[in-house]
Amino acid sequence: MARRAGAQARLETLGWLPYAGQQLPLQLLRLGTRAAGAPALGLFGGVHGIERIGSAVVLAYLHSLVASLRWSGLTHSLLERVSLVFMPVVNPVGMLRGTRANVHGVDLMRNSPVEASEKVPWPLGGQRLSRRLPWYRGQALEPEAAALCQAVERHLIGRPFALALDCHSGYGHRDRLWFPFAGSKAAPPRLAETMALRELFLSTYPNHNYYDIEPQWLHYMTHGDLWDHLTLQHRDSPGIFLSFTLEMGSWLWVRKNPLQLLRLTGLFNPVKPHRHQRVLRRHLVLIDFLARAVESHALWLPDAPRRDRLRQEARRLWFDGEQR
Ligand SMILES: [Zn+2]
């Protein structure tokens, strides 16, 4: 049935990581149409090895999507029109070892060459002093970061419309959807489209009002964010590319179960099974929304007058004085 829908899965290996006498693959999975001109959604997780819940959220959506191929014509028509890219474990060695960084001690979300335009908090914003300290930036692009960039450039950039969602956890009491930049307070390219998507979600799902959809710098600024890097590299590439980081507010789980602080992974992941399930349920609606928004981008992308209004609204909210 999957084949009939043109939806057979394709596994792609982007590189290998030597670890403990073995070679671990850096892989992604593609589902949906192979048409190069189709819109695309990329789902990423596990950039920080300790944030296993991000990988679990991506895999939970993949599971439901594939299971629904057995009975849902809507899933089939979605996959006939959209290309889906899944990279649920960007940092497999970090995940095996239960560390945020990769095997070289590098924080992959500080690893791109982008320098923040303002002073960032040290060492949280990224540091090159020592790999033994957290948030180490490394010296060159690490293989995992290169693989993520390759996945984006190969399968998302240059399409008429493409969107990436990168799932993380560990910051604050709220679930946040961050868009670029992390390293600059400037408005990102495609601000009007980002605002249109935000408005679309808020108006379609008024009861899912647990996401703050905001630029990342509002919370903290960093050097080397990979999504900043990809956004800047491709600001003039054809097509529309948007990226969001889902930062699941893990303090919510910690507050309800303080004992989980005794385990380091408990800072970043819900420990109790019912809470783990609840987190997985919570974000399925969002990912389903994103897939449908990608599929129907032509129906909601703003025209010129609306783009102006959306940019004004964004300026009012965050970019006061920004003349873009
Ligand atoms: Zn993270």
From TrEMBL:
Pfam annotation, one family: Peptidase_M14
Molecular function as annotated in GO: metallocarboxypeptidase activity; zinc ion binding
Q: Superkingdom, according to UniProt?
A: Bacteria
Cofactor entry:
Zn(2+)
Keyword entries, A-Z: Hydrolase, Metal-binding, Metalloprotease, Protease, Zinc
- Catalytic positions? E247 (proton donor/acceptor)
* GO CC terms of this entry: extracellular space
Protease as UniProt keyword: yes
GO-annotated biological processes: proteolysis
Q: Does the keyword Glycoprotein feature in the UniProt annotation?
A: no
User: Which residues does the UniProt record annotate as the domain Peptidase M14?
Assistant: 1-271
Family as reported in the entry's similarity comment:
Belongs to the peptidase M14 family.
Spell out the protein name for this chain. Peptidase M14 domain-containing protein
Source organism per UniProt: Zobellella denitrificans
